[in-house]
Amino acid sequence: MSKKKKNKKKNNPQPKTSPAIVQTEKPKAGSVQQPLHVDTDDTFHAVVKTYEHTQKWITLADTKSGLVLTVHGVLISFILQEMVLWKKAVVAGDVALETAYVVGGLFVVYLTLQIISFLYAIRVFFPRTLPVDYRQTRHVFNVGMTIAFPSMDDKEKLWQEYKALSEEDLKKEYVYQIHTDGHVCSQKYSCLRSSIKYLLVTLCFAFATFVSTAIFIS
């Protein structure tokens, strides 16, 4: 009996399978492939992260503009002290009239460039918003309409609007706000770049003015 069983096992060998090889069927021509499933929670998380990054860029632009304004304050106070000494030297007759005109021209150009750079830096802080769509509800990011609540009695109405807010509406408002913040961020950095460019040229004329006054006064 044992020999017959052994013969049966030899005659019917079991096929070997290789777990390392996985065969995939190629899609047939004309067949419609099913779209990949995307987790809505991951999508919403990515949208929120994008919104947070945009807010950080806006804050960074305001911080850099504040540093530019600080440089302007230090620079103008330093140059004005030099110009006071220069004026005294001109009044006393220690400086030739032609030299006084040259240094005065440098100072005027410096002051003009600094004013332009200063105004661009101030514009970074100006509040910017896109036109408000008053057909929308007054929740989440619609700041203009939220502030415009006429009285404290409207709190129940606001609660009803929040309560009726669906997940799709919330995603839509986040995306709309990202678009608004992107527009604001673009304008802020455009003004900041212009302010820094004018500041660099201002520093060159400030240095020329300082060297001229130092040479002729001494």
UniProtKB/TrEMBL annotation:
Region of interest (Disordered), ranges: 1-32
InterPro entries in the record? PycTM_dom
Select a single GO molecular function from the record's annotations and give it: nucleotide binding
- Membrane spanning stretches: 66-86, 106-126, 198-217
- Name the major location: membrane
Query: Any idea which UniProt keywords this protein has?
Result: Antiviral defense, Cell membrane, Membrane, Nucleotide-binding, Transmembrane, Transmembrane helix
Q: Which Pfam families match?
A: PycTM
Q: Which residues form the Pycsar effector protein domain?
A: 49-210
Question: Which GO CC annotations does the UniProt entry carry?
Answer: plasma membrane
Q: Which domain of life is it from?
A: Bacteria
| Compartments where located | Cell membrane
Please tell me whether the keyword Transit peptide is annotated for this protein: no
Bias (Basic residues) occurs at: 1-11
Question: Which BP terms from GO are recorded?
Answer: defense response to virus
Protein name, UniProt field: Pycsar effector protein domain-containing protein
Which organism's genome codes for this protein? Uabimicrobium amorphum
